[in-house]
Amino acid sequence: MWYKSLFQSYFRHGILVSILTTELFGWNSQAPSDATLVIKKGDTLWDIAYTLWGDSFQWPKLWNANPSITNPDLIFPGDVLIIPDRFASNNASAADAAPDTSISLNSESSALTDANNLLKNIYNDSISDSSLSTNLSESDKLDRSFFAKVPFLWFERDPQGYVYPGKGIVKKPPNASYKRYENLIIQPLTENYFSVGDTLDIYKPLRFLEINEQTANLIQRSGRCIVLETAPKKITAVVSEQWDAITGNERVDKYAQCHPGVVDTITTPSISITGSIITRAEATPSPYPYQTVIVDKGEGDGVQKGDIFGLYSTKKKITTWKLSAVGITLYVNKSTSSVILVSLLHNELSEGDKAVLVRKAHFVDRTNF
Fold first, then answer.
1. 3 state DSSP class of 360
2. For the whole prediction, is pTM greater than 0.70?
């Protein structure tokens, strides 16, 4: 049966598809409109859906047609994927596979990139780019302290082998906690690192998580202090800003600029990024506006501060996603990002739900911010 192996080596758009065997010889047990695809290294359902139908949001059709796939993020080279309805038009509406558009984010951009053409079907008039920009520019919500308090994941280990940031440890206070303008004592972990006059961030650990077999520490800044005196084993500083209780054992490091300014414009992104929610930073029964969610995409994936994500509830194996929230990225490290919920549309957002890059906010610095 030499012709069988020959026909099974047909390439379409760089993906190995056994189309001719299905059409000419009927060896595929699926309906005549179905074909098969051999997964190669680097393939994702998102990319395959775009290659086949010109619409990445149709990836759930692939998942539903392949019950052997229990996790859509885990497909392996060499596995055979059933391709349903391969004759569907590349210009088919995304309504069958896109998120619930009863409430979503509207595009007012006149120049749409190819990436935005894939996304535009998920938007309507409920929230406009201009109203989103206004929400992001409200100084009473997104001020300097708000940016400073954004929780984030920390993966690096200190010289002692612990997953903590900082080069010093806050000693226990004489009372329950340190107050603003009180002096606190710091045990330095690195000699000659701090100097008189340095402004230090005070980092509070929230909880540990295991992510891809790697330990991460969820961190939040609880305040800032200014160094008054230094000695080899003792540093005295005064609390200059306080956003949470400082009770000792917090870590400190030199001040890091963490506010980019206020939102000036919102544009269409030039790249496509889809990730998953790792956790909601604040442990609450349900999400709330201006809460932080941690997404499993970071600088290494092209995420930048100001990227706006649509956050989709995908609890069930269904062909549609429900847009639950819109969030803006305010902290990015190598592999994860902290996204703030600036618009909450549905009370449904859990670990594993999807985050799709939909817009990009550009900041400007203002002296009164």
1. strand
2. no
For the chain, list the domains and their CATH numbers.
2-95 (3.10.350.10), 98-145+261-364 (2.40.10.340), 151-254 (2.40.10)
Do 36 and 20 contact (CB within 8 A), yes or no? no
The predicted-structure confidence for 36-75, as pLDDT tens digits, reads as follows 788 888 788 877 877 777 666 677 788 888 888 877 777 8
How far apart CA 256 and CA 305 sit, in angstroms, is 15
- Mapping DSSP to helix (H, G, I), strand (E, B) and coil, where does residue 133 land? helix
What single DSSP character describes residue 25? Answer: I
- Name the amino acid, one letter, at 271: I
Contact 31, 22 (CB under 8 A): no
Q: 164: closest CA among 180, 153, 177, 174?
A: 153
Amino acid at 258: C
List Cβ<8 Å contacts ≥24 apart for 118-121. Answer: 118/50, 118/54, 118/55, 118/56, 118/57, 118/94, 118/272, 119/57, 119/356, 119/358, 121/57, 121/93, 121/94, 121/95
For 163-227, what is the HEC assignment?
CCCCCEEECCCCCCCECCCCEEEEEECCCCCCCCCCEEEEEEEEEEEEECCEEEEEEEEEEEEEE
Summarize pLDDT for 298-324 with one digit per residue, the tens: 999 999 999 999 888 876 554 467 788
Q: Are residues 219 and 206 in contact, defined by beta-carbon separation less than 8 angstroms? A: yes
| Rounded Cα distance, 243 and 216, in Å | 23
